[in-house]
Design brief:
This protein has 22 helices and four strands. It has helices spanning about 1-5, 10-30, 40-55, 65-85, 90-105, 125-130, 140-155, 165-170, 180-195, 200-215, 220-230, 240-255, 275-290, 300, 305-315, 320-340, 345-365, 370-380, 390-405, 410-415, 475-480, 505-520, and strands at about 445-450, 450-455, 485-490, 500.
């Protein structure tokens, strides 16, 4: 990757990050034509091993002192231990695993969002995870590996404040959640900008890569672009590589979703495989209700005045309201800090965060969409005040605290009952000392509507263990309500993609039978 695009920054962590971006982009292109199966994985790993020895990359590790090696080992053991807990993020079962299964068995499928709207996202991070899921990482713990890489970066660069973030990020290490890589990558890119890295072409390309993992990270490419324009005075040629990545991101989304950016139906080119408008409206309504933590119906929210929209968002029951208030307070505190400091870079960071925050507040103000803002603000405010000793102490204390919460989730369930994810934590199992904990649930029903034969998880809302093609019960209900149903473009080959069609009277009867199976099973 470095031979092709240049060096992002020196050191083993810089090579690894360049490799992650390169592999992700190559596999994204490959997945249009073939599944990311064991053959793709084997070839990639053999090439990696070849270059590791051919380029003598192992010599990079000799630059670490014994003291640094011990610290790396200590933190890595904690990361691997924590990453072995059971996954508990609900998206793991309804989005991450099904996406990875489709990628490894079929690759990127045209119009897959017609089958299950959530699958239309197909994050680049899940493409990266899918390519390593056949035998290298069948337990889907790539996030744990990324945290170890992040540790290497912090120690290699002697930027110790990063160690303070790792204990919090341990909560994302059990699943291939895209939240962890975008937070880690954004902190690294921000650190490189502050440290004076002037490789603006690669910094912008990597920031667009982060955006392609999760579009709510729009602030990062905006920041790098502003820095190029007002600080580094770079010419527009430096945007070329990043623009190529952005175009690939749009093409990937159009292929799977029908529009350039999931889940926004902006940029309608009239593709036949785009989702039905009623399904998109239902999804939009759900996003609005999620903004208010499902505590109000869509009809109630529509009746809110502007003042009530703001007041009710701040006064939600439970921990969500505290997070929302802290978010706004943090933004204004950082704005005052930027005004007092009067440094151009800090001002540009503040402007970028406000752009991102306004977009999130307009579309769907869920805390999971702005959690990265807390990390960035803390990083900039305390960048100069954390040395090695303080950071290691903070890491140790916070790790002990957060591991205790994962081990004894009853603490969260008792004292923070409104934090719903706490109810899905399974606690410590002795088996995780030698194997990451995973769930198995292979109960499903075979169904058929029109030319589509599919499977539905039995008495469970998600399809993480259900053989493909699988549809979540909630989307079946939405489709039937809209009087449509997904159909394969080629009835003999589902890899050719899916479109939606209005149901005939016979298909409506078949769909009603499926609904009855789901409802009777749930009883």
């Amino acid at each position: 990757m470095e031979k092709f695009s240049g060096i992002l920054f020196q050191g083993i962590s810089g090579k690894i990050l360049s490799g992650i971006m390169g592999i992700s982009l190559v596999w994204t292109v490959i997945s249009f034509f073939t599944p990311l199966n064991i053959y793709v994985e084997t070839i990639s790993i053999l090439l990696g091993i070849l270059y590791f020895f051919k380029e003598k990359l192992y010599l990079e590790f000799y630059r670490f002192s014994k003291r640094d090696c011990f610290l790396t080992l200590f933190i890595s053991i904690i990361i691997l231990f924590t990453g072995a807990y059971y996954p508990y993020i609900l998206d793991h079962f309804g989005y991450y695993v099904p996406t990875i299964k489709w990628l490894t068995e079929y690759g990127l499928i045209k119009g897959i969002s017609n089958l299950d709207l959530t699958l239309g996202q197909m994050s680049v991070w899940h493409i990266f995870q899918a390519g390593f899921s056949n035998f290298s990482d069948p337990f889907l713990r790539i996030n744990s590996i990324l945290l170890i890489i992040y540790t290497l970066y912090s120690i290699e660069k002697k930027n110790w404040i990063h160690l303070c973030f790792i204990p919090i990020l341990l909560f994302f290490s059990q699943s291939p959640s895209p939240d962890l890589p975008v937070i880690v990558f954004s902190l690294i890119i921000l650190n490189e900008i502050i440290s004076g890295n002037k490789n603006t072409s690669l910094l912008f390309a990597f920031s667009v890569f982060v955006f392609s993992i999760k579009p709510t990270m729009i602030w990062l490419p905006v920041l790098v672009f502003l820095c190029q324009t007002f600080i580094f005075k770079s010419n527009f040629k430096t945007l070329f590589f990043g623009s190529i990545i952005l175009i690939l991101f749009f093409i990937k989304n159009i292929w799977t979703f029908g529009y350039p950016v999931f889940p926004v139906s902006i940029g309608d080119f009239g593709f036949s495989w785009k989702p039905n408008d009623e399904i998109l409206k239902t999804s939009s309504k759900y996003a609005v209700m999620k903004t208010y933590d499902m505590q109000y119906s869509y009809e109630e929210i529509k009746k809110f005045s502007t003042l009530e929209h703001i007041k009710n968002w701040f006064l939600l029951k439970g921990i969500k309201s505290k997070i929302n208030i802290f978010f706004i307070v943090s933004l204004f505190t950082f704005s005052v800090f930027a005004w007092v400091k009067k440094k151009r870079l800090i001002t540009l960071i503040c402007i970028s965060l406000w752009i991102k925050s306004i977009l999130v507040l307009v579309f769907s103000a869920q805390y999971r969409f702005f959690i990265d803002v807390f990390f960035i603000i803390f990083f900039v405010l305390f960048y100069e005040y954390w040395d090695r000793k303080k950071s290691i102490a903070a890491f140790s204390v916070l790790s002990l605290f957060f591991i205790s919460l994962l081990t004894f989730p009853g603490i969260i369930q008792k004292y923070i009952p409104s934090f719903q994810l706490g109810n899905f934590m399974a606690g410590f199992k002795k088996d995780q000392f030698y194997q990451p904990s995973v769930y198995y649930y292979q109960q499903f029903n075979n169904c058929k509507v029109g030319n589509l034969k599919f499977n539905v998880s039995r008495n469970y809302p998600y399809n993480f263990e259900t053989p493909l093609p699988a549809i979540s019960p909630s989307f079946i209900f939405d489709d039937v309500k809209a009087e449509i149903f997904p159909q394969p473009i080629n009835k003999n080959d589902i890899s050719k993609g899916f479109i939606w069609k209005r149901m005939t009277s016979g298909e409506k009867k078949e769909a009603s039978a499926v609904i009855n199976i789901i409802e009777n099973t749930d009883k």
